[in-house]
Design a protein that fits this description.
alpha/beta, 15 strands, 33% helix, 27% strand, elongated
Length: 315
């Protein structure tokens, strides 16, 4: 478990992390989200004792990271996959790490196979592609079978097979009771990986809640309807005394968006009218939409289009 209490970090007159408190619990995958400049990397560095907080405290496994006698067995870390001596092979990089904790050579070979680097294990890490380097970084994090994983952008550079592999691996580790803390800008992947999310903006906590709740809060009460008689259905739903508070807008040749009625009510009305339905579904926001809406005023860096329009980006 990771616990941060009133965590604050200042660099001169700039506050990178501002009174941040949260807990990352075992048994689930917790996503750590925020725009560039939100303080995510600084927070992760303080968790690992790489930066000292200006005030507040953070513990991993019940005490500060630096107080653990065998830290690799407590926390497996991926902050910078390229933090490898480039002239060493993947095997010898992992072997050197293993020696610090008396980890058997057999475990080194196991994690090499686990991340799919067995064919290049004896090659210089300096010649690795981005994806191969990422796999080596993940192998380093897994080497001592730690209780806690802290991973920054773990799918960066991975191909679709690799992304699915790391997703399944993290889910398996969480199911086994590990604490998994993952930061990423890839919203589509976080949406299908994380169970819980912590969102920060300009160093402050903005949300700490289950993924499903974040999506639900951002979703509207509209219902998306598919029917070969969309125009007729929209007109019928919008007419008469029962239409008070109901809006039905045709959004395509056979689709409409309805507010003011539940999916069940729309289905009953269509049945009574003898109108065929091909689909009924609540309109749900994506994680990206929820995130962008929540952090729209917290984006530190803005780009402009050639016409001068501002683009707000959290990537």
């Amino acid at each position: 478990m990771i616990e941060a209490t009133n965590l604050t970090k200042k660099y001169g007159d700039k506050t990178a992390v501002d009174d941040l408190s949260f807990a990352v619990r075992p048994g689930i995958i917790t996503g750590f989200l925020g725009p560039n400049g939100a303080g995510k990397s600084t927070t992760m560095r303080m968790i690992l004792g790489l930066d000292a907080p200006t005030s507040g405290a953070v513990t991993v496994g019940g005490k500060p990271y630096r107080e653990h006698a065998r830290p690799l067995q407590v926390v497996g870390v991926l902050l910078e996959a390229r933090a490898v001596h480039t002239s060493r092979s993947a095997y010898h990089h992992l072997l050197a790490l293993a020696a610090t904790h008396s980890i058997a050579k057999s475990r080194v070979l196991d994690v090499i196979e686990m991340v799919g680097l067995q064919d290049v294990a004896r090659k210089r890490a300096g010649g690795f592609s981005l994806g191969m380097g990422q796999r080596l970084g993940i192998a380093s994090a897994l080497l001592a079978d730690p209780e806690i994983l802290v991973l920054d952008e773990p799918v960066n550079g991975l191909d679709p097979e690799g992304i699915r592999w790391i997703r399944d691996l993290l889910k398996s580790l969480a199911a086994d009771g590990h604490t998994v803390f993952v930061s990423s800008h890839l919203m589509s992947e976080m949406a299908v990986t994380a169970d819980h999310v912590i969102v920060v903006g300009r160093g402050r906590l903005m949300a700490d809640l289950p993924m499903a709740d974040l999506i639900a809060q951002a979703s509207s009460s509209a219902v998306l309807v598919s029917s070969p008689e969309a125009v007729a259905l929209a007109a019928a739903l919008s007419a008469g005394p029962a239409a008070a508070g109901v809006t039905a807008s045709v959004t395509g040749g056979q689709t409409l968006e309805v507010t003011g009625l539940t999916a069940a009510q729309i289905g009953d009305r269509a049945r009574d009218l003898g109108i065929s339905l091909h689909g009924l579904a609540p309109k749900r926001a994506s994680l990206e939409e929820a995130f962008m809406e929540m952090t729209r005023d917290e984006v530190e860096y803005h780009a402009t289009t050639p016409t001068g329009h501002t683009l707000r980006s959290a990537a």
